[in-house]
Amino acid sequence: IAATQPSTNWHLKENAREHHTSKFSSEELIVRRGQAFTITFNGTERPEQNLIFIAETGPKPSKASKTLATFDISSTVSKEGWSAVLQSTSSNSVSISISSPHNAVIGRYRLSVQSGSSSPQSLGSFVLLFNPWSSGDDVFMPNKAECEEYVLEEFGIIFAGNKNHISSFGWNFGQFQGDILNICLSIMDRSLYYRQDPLTDVSHRHDPRYLGRVLSAMVNANDDQGVVLGNWSGKYEGGKNPTSWTGSGEILQSWKKSGFKPVKYGQCWVFAAVLTTVLRCLGIPTRTITNFSSAHDADGNLRVDEFYDADGNHLERGADSVWNFHVWNESWFTRNDLGPSYSGWQVLDATPQEESGGIYQCGPASRHAIKEGEVDLDYDGPFVFAEVNADCMYWNYDSATGKKTLIFSKSTEIGASISTKAVGRDDRVDVTRDYKYEEGSAKERDIFKKARKKLGLEDKFDPTAPKQEEVEQKPDISGKFKVAGSLEVGKDLNLLLVLENLQSDAKTVNVNMTAWSTLYTRRRVNQIWKDSLSVTLAPKEEKQFPIKIKYPEYQQQLTTDKTIQVTALCHVEDGIQVLVKRNITLDNPAIDIQVLGEAKVNKEVFVEVAFTNPIDAEVKDCVLQVEGSDLLQGILELRIPPLKASEKSSTKFKLIPSEAGLKHLLVNFSCDKFADIKTFKTVNVIN
């Protein structure tokens, strides 16, 4: 006769330590696959005899789909399937070491035990994750410091700005906080793949390649009521401005609390940061990557076309675009479908840009395949290849006649300073060479031709375009914008337009100049300024023309991305037009954080945040937002009184750290004149 319901000791502390899951705050056992964990239970008669264990996951577990395993006590760990090895027995309890296979389906399991012919009795549930510390796992990462960074680190740095002026901000991934693991498990159960065929979906959850693709679709709201709704309009009513988030936790928790309604709003770094949180939480090593001058090639011809009118205004024609920067993910796993040389870092992109297989998902694309121009390999090679390699074509478009004339083309514009955070340090690492051969080298051009050939594109720019448009003539003059002075919100913007006559006879040039505020995607929002000038350049002469755009002129027009595009279209008499352009990102004023005293576990410590108003006008609607894993619960929001011109504000608040180690405090300050001034501070918490 079966005894009463067994009570289970999951040895949470010891198992978590062995399985690198101590950072989860859970009453449930969380372990990694391909590695043994120990449990003790009582309430079975003659425990060591005829015990059969049943581990099952998903809606209709079956052995065929590897979502159900039955195994009895054996003397050794099984190489293939699940196994149980007896550790010790006493009169009424038994300790068992249970091992799962390296390729087990991940997720929440129900564990039960059967003794003899009696019916199975539940021992409870546990969660099984990927195991980058285990050499048999598809996500195995031999370098332990990289495992620490790409799986266990809850703080990240995301790079932004533009290629001439790289900036960065901190992000709290928070993958081990509160309910995040449960939310990640429910993301998988809400995907289109699961809804269409739950049994097949769950049976594929052993495969990081499959889950990476599914989750790249689920992090954006398109198609499937996923986590974050994108918005690139510059208007964010009814939600939060994408630049205002400081971590993924608030986003994932809002999604769950609202009954799984998409959270408003995100842009590329938000999608990438949330995907990083989800994948690290599940045990797949993941990082964010920023690509500067990133191409969005909508028509798949490996080039982006930009159109300008006679006044130098950038026209919204065609679906191609170049973004100042774009953020995606790399995850680390083997590509058994492609072969060993394509294993390692894989590109995943949750930003909804183009459909793949009918829905907005992107990747995994092997980074090695991208570098070698192997764009025909799964998944989404052509799109990712174009993001870092597309050629740029700049056209003059006459709306009256519909005629377009090529101004010039550039093959070295796209994919610059590809960046990620260093392992164990708060520094930038440049990974451009991992995506492509040296820009302008023969090898790089060969790879570009190889990719075009694989996609069936002719070597000409565009086989359908009339040929005379494509003859690129040599310009008579050259031009560039130089920055003179600081690039700060609140200060006047000083530039120099430098024009040089390349010929040995004089040239008369009529220049039309415009400045527009833009989003980081270079989408124009408001015109700030326009001007024109006429100049005669003597043979080989260089001239400089100072341009000043005053703060009051741009203040009302600036977007929260703080980006301005300046263009000068130069009409050379009896010569071809020359386009001079520059994308400028302004810096916010600084904000200062001081930790007042020593930070100790479970002890109060005060923090002071100081901000000085740098402009000659009052700033109001000031809000300070603070977060940091293991330093405070959730997000602290403090309202600050208005600040007069040059006035300094100082705000104090307290933290009660919950865990020792190097922690990061993230601060976001906003007011009516400055949006989302971000900074972070490393706090060393001692016991």
Automatic annotation (TrEMBL):
Q: Which reaction does it catalyse?
A: L-glutaminyl-[protein] + L-lysyl-[protein] = [protein]-L-lysyl-N(6)-5-L-glutamyl-[protein] + NH4(+)
Answer yes or no on keyword Iron.
Answer: no
Q: Which organism is it from?
A: Vidua chalybeata (Village indigobird)
Organismal lineage: Eukaryota, Metazoa, Chordata, Craniata, Vertebrata
Record: active site = C268, H326, D349
* Cofactor binding notes: Binds 1 Ca(2+) ion per subunit.
* Record keyword Iron present: no
Q: What is this protein called?
A: protein-glutamine gamma-glutamyltransferase
Q: Which residues form the Transglutaminase-like domain?
A: 260-352
What's the family?
Belongs to the transglutaminase superfamily. Transglutaminase family.
Alphabetical UniProt keywords: Acyltransferase, Calcium, Metal-binding, Transferase
